[in-house]
Design brief:
The complex is a heterodimer.
Chain A lengths: L2 E5 L1 H19 L5 E5 L3 H16 L8 E3 L31 E9 L3 H13 L4 E9 L11 E5 L7 E5 L1 H4 L3 E5 L13 H8 L10
Parallel strand pairs in A: 2-3, 2-4, 4-5, 5-6
Antiparallel strand pairs in A: 1-8, 7-8
Helix pairs in contact in A: 1-2
Chain B lengths: L11 H18 L13 E6 L5 H12 L3 E6 L11 H10 L4 E6 L4 H8 L5 E7 L5 H16 L3 E2 L5 E2 L12 E5 L6 H12 L3 E5 L15 E3 L2 H8 L3 E4 L15 H8 L3 H6 L5 E3 L12 H5 L5 H20 L7
Parallel strand pairs in B: 1-2, 1-3, 3-4, 7-8, 7-10, 8-9, 10-11
Antiparallel strand pairs in B: 5-6
Helix pairs in contact in B: 1-5, 1-11, 2-11, 5-6, 5-11
The chains are: A alpha/beta, B alpha/beta.
Chain lengths: 208, 329
């Protein structure tokens, strides 16, 4: 596997800090702001974003960071082996009337976000829903776009994007694997396999 | 595994996985919209050859919360009472496009036959077969014990929801005493296999006439006196079984009052249990017979939690068997 690293730790931190400022700017402060991360790595990014927001704006309530599992809402459930769902945790005040910022690591087909929007509507009725992603790699299959993007990474569909976060993977990096046009050539011990077991984090599997 | 036929062939990891998914399902029950779109377009048939209200409505609620279509089929007043065989019934359901069949049958092994015969393609969930097994009851009992011990979703003082206190945990070191008609009880059998797989120590307490032959091959201790079990085992969990008059073809004990006096959980015995212990009952209860009203209504009693958790656990089972492509549990 020949993965090329595109973002290093400092780049990721800078991108998240910029996103935090943009969130506060578009929301005109931190009032009524709720961050919901999409498992697995979106949850980690949401809690990082929450810490940065709390540093910038003392009024930001650190308890208004949660997670939202979208497994039960996916449209590809019947095409894949059963996925293990992750916990959903909503801030104690609920999400009615708030501005929810969905946080995910990679925006690709948009299907995960579609599922997340359905999941949110079952939890309550926010005033607005925004989307923040660390990486937008294109190839949308649904009319969905991100409001806050860490980095646009134009990619080919056969390429794979790996997001590593220190909390889970030991290091912070975003890398792209350009050469594995043939999935069978992938080393079985590679990150791709590990990630697939941990959740939906290899953003580049062949789709039916 | 494509079917859930018994808890005996569940591994520790598979069982914990089911319980963890059930934690997610339990969270759904606390929301405003208690419904998931997960099994939209799937059909679940509740095929009940025996009277049952709570298990059937629990499965029905579970399937409906996952947006599946539910068809209830009970043997009374159906073609079965006109002499239709299990095979023809199964093939009829197959032709109707059932994706999952929840089967309760008076004959031990009927779900196994349905799963192995090739008459029907659907996933089979055993909802109680004769005196063999009742796997979802054991799963919900294990789930209830785990939640009481390790907590479900809890909120800390700063308001953040703390997950994972119970997730991934087994029942290592928990002592469980199961009291009553072990001979006829599929609940006891399923619980013995599941709870010991999860690491609990199980002691069975029953009159000698209600202990099955071959019990020495089970991974359990047997005791004939409830008083002795309470004092020596110091159980974390006391699970009372219902006296099943309908399955008793012979006199296994002199009369119900004597049974209640010797093997019932009366007020005096309840008072001797540890304060944080649990009293469980699969229901329906015979108050005053195997369990006193005070024990059934005390803070130790998990009876209503068991009912609520039953829906969560059955949602987890249906999700794991029906949502994905093939694989199952």
């Amino acid at each position: 596997m020949s993965a090329r690293t595109l973002l290093h730790q400092a780049d990721i931190t800078r991108a998240l800090t910029r996103i935090a400022h943009e969130v506060l700017e578009s929301n005109r402060g931190s009032a009524g702001l709720v961050l919901l991360g999409i498992p697995t790595r979106g949850v980690l990014l949401a809690s990082r974003l929450g810490r940065i927001l709390a540093d910038i704006d003392p009024d930001f309530d650190p308890a208004s960071v949660g997670s939202i599992d979208v497994t039960m809402y996916r449209d590809d459930l019947s095409r894949k082996p059963t996925r293990a769902p992750a916990p959903t945790s909503v801030p104690p005040g609920g999400i009615d009337g708030t501005t929810v910022v969905l946080v995910d690591d990679v925006l690709y087909s948009g299907r995960t976000i579609r599922a997340a929007l359905d999941a949110i509507s079952d939890l309550g009725r926010p005033r607005a829903v925004r989307l923040a992603v660390l990486v937008d790699r294109g190839h949308r299959e649904l009319p969905i776009r991100a409001d806050f993007v860490g980095k646009n990474l134009p990619s080919a569909q056969h390429e794979r994007i790996f997001v590593h976060l220190a909390e889970l993977d030991g290091d912070d990096s975003v890398s792209i694997d350009s050469l594995s046009t043939n999935p069978a050539s992938t080393d079985p011990a590679s990150t791709a396999q590990v990630d697939a077991a941990a959740g939906s984090t290899t953003h580049g599997r062949a789709r039916p | 595994m494509r079917h859930l036929l018994s808890t005996r062939d569940l591994s520790r990891d598979e069982a914990i996985h089911v319980l963890d998914v059930a934690e997610n399902m339990a969270d759904v029950a606390t929301r405003e919209v208690k419904k998931l779109p997960t099994l939209r377009g799937r059909t679940v048939v509740n095929l009940f050859f025996e009277d049952s209200t709570r298990t059937r409505i629990s499965f029905e609620a579970a399937a409906k919360r996952l947006s599946a279509d539910v068809i209830n089929f009970s043997a009374k007043g159906s073609s079965v009472s006109k002499g239709e065989s299990l095979k023809d019934t199964a093939q009829t359901l197959e032709a109707m496009g059932a994706d999952g069949v929840v089967l309760r049958h008076p004959a031990s092994g009927a779900p196994h036959v349905l799963a192995e015969s090739g008459w029907i393609d659907a996933a089979i969930v055993n909802a109680g077969d004769g005196t063999h097994e009742h796997p979802t009851q054991a799963l919900l009992d294990a789930f209830t014990i785990r939640r009481r011990l390790h907590g479900g979703t809890q909120r800390s003082s700063d308001g953040a929801a703390a997950h994972g206190t119970a997730r991934g945990r087994d029942l290592d070191g928990v002592s469980v005493v199961i009291v009553g008609d072990i001979l006829h009880s599929r609940v006891a059998r399923s619980n013995v296999w599941l709870l010991t797989t999860l690491g609990a120590a199980v002691t069975l307490v029953a009159p000698p006439t209600l202990v099955p032959i071959g019990i020495d091959t089970w991974p359990v201790d047997v005791c004939f006196s409830l008083d002795e079990a309470i004092d020596t085992v110091r159980p974390d969990v006391v699970m009372m079984l219902r006296i099943q008059a309908e399955r008793m073809s012979a006199a296994f004990f002199p009369n119900t009052r004597e049974y209640g006096r010797v093997w019932g959980l009366d007020d005096a015995r309840t008072a001797r249990l540890a304060p944080d212990s649990m009293v469980m009952h699969p229901g329906p209860m015979n108050r005053g017979l195997e369990i006193s009203a005070a024990a059934a209504d005390s803070a130790r009693s998990t009876v209503l939690e068991q009912v609520a958790n039953g829906v969560s656990v059955r949602m987890a089972v249906l999700y794991l068997l029906l949502a994905g492509q093939g694989e199952g549990l």
